[in-house]
Structures are given as C-alpha cells and as structure tokens.
Amino acid sequence: MFKKYLIPNAQNLPEGTAFTVEAEKYSFLVTKQQGRIFAYENLCPHQNKPLNWSTDSVIDDEGDYLKCHHHGALFSITDGTCITGPCQGRHLRKATVGMEKGDCYLLLP
Ligand code: FES
User: Fold this and answer.
1) Where is the Rieske domain (predicted)?
2) pTM for the full predicted model
3) Each residue of 26-72: pLDDT tens digit?
C-alpha cells in the first residue's frame, strides 16, 4: 500500500526546471523531461548530501541532467544513473510518481 503526497502544480512545471517536495522525513527533487514528471530523493550517492545545497539550478545548463553542485556529478533525469562524476554508475533513489484526477502524486511505500 502506497501513501500519496500531492506534488503541487506539477503539470505546469516548465521543462528544464526542478523543485523540492518534502514527504515524511525525505526531500525529493521533482523535474519534467519530455512531458513526463520524475522525482528523486534529494540525496547524492557520493556523500549523501542534498544535490541542491546552492541556489543554482539542479538541472545542468542544457536541461538534460540533474546536477549535484558539491562535486559536479550529473544524473540521468529518466533513470537517475550518474553518468559522470565521483559516483559514476551509481543511482539517485527514484520515487514513484502517479496521476489521479489530473493531479500528480509521490507514491511512497
Ligand atoms: S556529494 Fe554529490 S558529487 Fe559529491
């Protein structure tokens, strides 16, 4: 059984941007790529720090990857794999995202 947490206004999130949602004791980064909403725990597998410690965007300049500002790791938006950086090959923890009646939710076990 999943617990649902509303992701406010997710459908209107512009491509290439991200915001955080708090659910239970976790922080999640929510972003959109090619019309799909993705959510990952905001915790870099390199040193277990939040990716967004600075005010800079957690999306790289081209809008293709999530970026950890601590040591520059880049992560695939679609599956959370680190494609370059000190934790290459490791993954962000992906959260399940569901839709219901036009609203977008984080679904946590
Ligand atoms: S803590 Fe994210 S790259 Fe080092």
Assistant:
1) 4-106
2) 0.94
3) 999 999 999 999 999 999 999 999 999 888 889 999 999 999 999 99
Instruction: State which H helix or E strand residue 10 sits in.
Output: none
Is the pLDDT at 1 greater than 90, yes or no? no
Distance CA 106, CA 109 (A): 10
Ligand 1 binding residues, C-beta < 6 A = 44, 46-47, 49, 68, 70-71, 73, 85-86
Q: Which atom of ligand 1 is nearest to the CA of 86?
A: 3
Question: What is the CATH code for 3-108?
Answer: 2.102.10.10
CA separation, residue 43 to residues 34, 35, 50 (Å): 23, 24, 5
